[in-house]
Please model this.
Amino acid sequence: MTELIHAAILGLTQGLAEFLPISSSAHLLIIPQIFGWSYLGKSFDVALHFGTLLALVAVFREDIAALLRGTRALLPGQAAKPEETRLVKLLVVGCLPAGIIGLTFEKAIEQKLGGLLFMAAMLIVWGVLLELADRKGADHRRTIADLTFKDALIIGCAQAAALMPGTSRSGSTITVALFLGFSRTEAARFSFLLSLPVVAGASLLKGIELATDASTLNILGPLLVGVLVSAVSGFLCIKYFLKYLQSNSFRPFVIYRIALGAFLIYWATTHGG
Model:
């Protein structure tokens, strides 16, 4: 029962922190450390990401259908709206940096930059950048329809930068999109759409790695709880976050990032890490 409660709490954490610009990796690392919980394993990590993938699919199902039509139109003899095909190409360009760097350096980044102090620094630095971008972009009106391939590549590089623990994938991509002149809601929407191929690809690759791991069956209950809670909380988070951004700023998330970063510095210096 204890493991199921831990799984539910971590699933809720993943569902919220994956889509809010506050770094899910920092939260999933520090919460078990603070409470002394045992690590549920890589299978559980994959389950949490699969849950957030389900949330993305549920919220953006119409956009995904358009992307599928746009992808099919790339084949000979198929047709789709020009904007659908164009968005597919933009997402491909945007995903290239994270795909290349992730496949090449992800493990090295985790090993070299996975400490709490580095996480704290990234939380604070990107929090300050988000504040600056939010001030600059408060009155911006660019939409996804205005997105250029240069924009997609630049935002894609921000997504690659989020491989550094504590950065936050949504935080870095939204920040850069705001600097490029996109509105708050459109910056968040493109950030979420851009995450679809990355989250799906990562879940697939890691899922294949763990498919033959017999120990996965030992935590089947926590896995199912983690998937369910992260999916439901992620779905609600995306819906309400996009609604919130229609008339509110990112200031609360900036304050939270800086406060969490300061706490991690305290925790690392008093407990090690």
